[in-house]
Design a protein that fits this description.
By secondary structure, the protein is an alpha/beta fold. Helix content is about 35%, strand content about 20%. It folds into two domains: about 10-45 and about 90-330, von Willebrand factor, type A domain (Rossmann fold, 3-Layer(aba) Sandwich); about 55-85, no CATH class.
C-alpha cells in the first residue's frame, strides 16, 4: 500500500514525516484516549489469554515458595521437594485488517477529508482502527496491521507492508502513522486479501476486519476459510452510512462508485421500499458466511458514538451498534 503525497512509508518502509501526517497521528491518539474514557464500565473484558496456563517445569523448593505448588507425587517417589512452575499469562496477538478501498471515501458529509478524520466512512474507519490499536497496545496486547487496497495514483502495485503484531510505543507509533497516511483508493478484492492475510496470521490470535464489505458476499465468503483454519477470534466491523442504505434523499440523485463504473440515476422515493428488502437479504448473506466460519458480525453506522462501537467490538458482541446509540441519545 502506498501512502499519500509526500507522507508515510515508501517501498523500503522508510517513514517520511510531514506536518499533515503528524497532525493526524496526534489527533488519532487524542481521539483514542477520549473514546476509551467514554466506554461504559464493564463493556470490555480483558483480551489477555488467562484460561490456558500450562505446566512449564519443576524447580527445587525454596523457603517462601507457595506450598500449594509443591508436587507431592514427586516428593513421594524421590524424597525431593520440587515446585511446579507454569508459563506466565500470555497476551493475545491482534491484527487489524483495514479496508482502504475507494468506496470507503464516501459518506453522509461527502468526500473524505483529513484532518480532521470526520465526514466519511473512511474517516470513521481510520479513527476506529487507531483507537483499537491504541487500546490494545496500552493493554499489553501485540498489535499488527494489514491494509487492503488504497493505492496511490501513479504508483500502481505499491502496497503498505504487512505489519506483524508487536508491542511497544514505537511499534504503536508505526501503526498509527500508517493509518494516518492512508487515503481511500482502488478496489478491495476482499477474497484474495483474506487468503493472503490468513497465511500470515499467528494461531490463536485476534483478527479485526474493518470494512464496508461493498463486494458480493459470495466473492469473499469462501476465503474466510483462510482465517478460520488459523483458529483465530474473527470479528468483522461492518461500516455503513445510514443515509445511503435508507436512500434518505429528497430529489433525483446519481450514484457513482469511486472504484469505477457508470453513474446510476435514481429516484429515491420510487425504490426506497425495495432498498430495505435488498439490505435485509444482503445482511443475511453476510451473517451466514461469518457464522459458518465462527466470525462475529458487528454492524456499525457511521453516526454511532465511537465508544459504543469500540465496546461492542472489544466485547465480541454481535449485532447492530446503532440500536444502542439511539438508546444513549434518548
Amino acid at each position: 500500500m502506498a501512502p499519500s503525497e509526500n507522507s508515510g512509508a515508501g517501498p523500503s518502509g522508510t517513514m517520511h514525516w510531514d506536518p499533515d501526517v503528524l497532525t493526524r497521528v496526534a489527533w488519532l491518539q487524542l481521539r483514542a484516549r477520549q473514546a476509551v474514557a467514554g466506554l461504559v464500565h464493564g463493556a470490555h473484558r480483558s483480551m489477555a489469554v488467562t484460561s490456558n496456563i500450562e505446566f512449564a517445569d519443576y524447580k527445587e523448593y525454596s523457603p517462601g515458595d507457595p506450598l500449594r505448588d509443591l508436587d507431592w507425587k514427586v516428593a513421594g517417589r524421590t524424597d525431593r521437594l520440587v515446585v511446579r512452575r507454569h508459563n506466565a499469562e500470555s497476551h493475545l496477538p491482534a491484527t487489524l485488517v483495514f479496508d482502504a478501498s475507494g468506496d470507503l471515501g464516501t459518506g453522509q458529509d461527502g468526500r473524505y477529508k483529513r484532518p480532521p478524520l470526520d465526514g466519511s466512512k473512511f474517516g470513521y474507519a481510520v479513527t476506529l482502527a487507531g483507537t483499537l490499536a491504541w487500546f490494545l497496545s496500552h493493554g499489553g496486547d501485540p498489535v499488527g496491521l494489514s491494509v487492503i487496497a488504497g493505492e496511490e495514483p501513479g504508483r500502481d502495485g505499491v502496497r503498505w507492508p504487512f505489519v506483524p503484531p508487536r508491542g511497544g510505543r514505537g511499534h504503536l507509533a508505526q501503526v498509527l502513522a500508517q493509518l494516518a497516511a492512508l487515503r481511500p483508493a482502488g478496489s478491495a478484492g476482499l477474497g484474495p486479501a483474506f487468503e493472503a492475510v490468513g497465511g500470515r496470521l499467528q494461531r490463536r490470535s485476534l483478527v479485526i476486519v474493518i470494512s464496508d464489505l461493498m463486494e458480493e458476499p459470495a466473492s469473499w465468503g469462501p476465503a474466510l476459510t483462510a482465517l478460520a483454519r488459523r483458529n483465530v477470534d474473527l470479528r468483522v466491523v461492518h461500516l455503513y452510512d445510514p443515509r445511503e442504505w435508507s436512500l434518505d434523499y429528497g430529489d433525483m440523485v446519481r450514484f457513482l462508485s469511486p472504484e469505477g463504473g457508470a453513474p446510476v440515476p435514481l429516484d429515491p422515493a420510487a425504490v426506497r421500499g425495495e432498498m430495505a428488502t435488498v439490505v435485509d437479504e444482503y445482511l443475511a448473506e453476510v451473517r451466514g458466511w461469518l457464522a459458518r466460519h465462527r466470525g462475529v458480525h458487528v454492524l456499525v453506522p457511521t453516526d454511532a458514538p465511537l465508544e459504543l462501537a469500540l465496546g461492542r467490538v472489544l466485547g465480541a458482541v454481535a449485532g447492530h451498534v446503532g440500536d444502542r446509540a439511539v438508546e444513549r441519545r434518548a
